[in-house]
Amino acid sequence: MAYLALSVEDVIINKWELSEGTLSIGRAAENDIQIKDSAVSSQHARVITGPNPFIEGQLITYIEDLKSTNGTELNGREIARQQLDHEDIIRIGFSQFQYIDKEATTLDETAIIIG
Predict the structure, then answer these.
(1) Entry pTM
(2) Cα–Cα nearest to 18, from 40, 44, 50
(3) Which one, of 97, 33, 29, 38, lies nearest residue 68 by Cα?
(4) 82 burial class (0-12, 13-18, 19+ CB within 10 angstroms)?
């Protein structure tokens, strides 16, 4: 099972389990993850988890910026929409999240080498 972990100085202070569906992130109270930070837009970003079209029975997760004022960073780069990989770092305002999915299969693990 994958989850999104909020960390401060490399200590996890909260985490949200990711199942199929959408998790909203922003300053407004109606978000699934509310961040009380003026650098965060009311509806800042969302995390979308759904079926992997290439591997039956596996879920895939994306982060999508909702045209926020200050943007969403993934591993130090501003993104619009990006698939998440195990241990990716997401920065929204002054908050840092880490995507954890220890069951994820990487392309290296699924590659077939023809020699």
Answers:
(1) 0.86
(2) 50
(3) 38
(4) middle
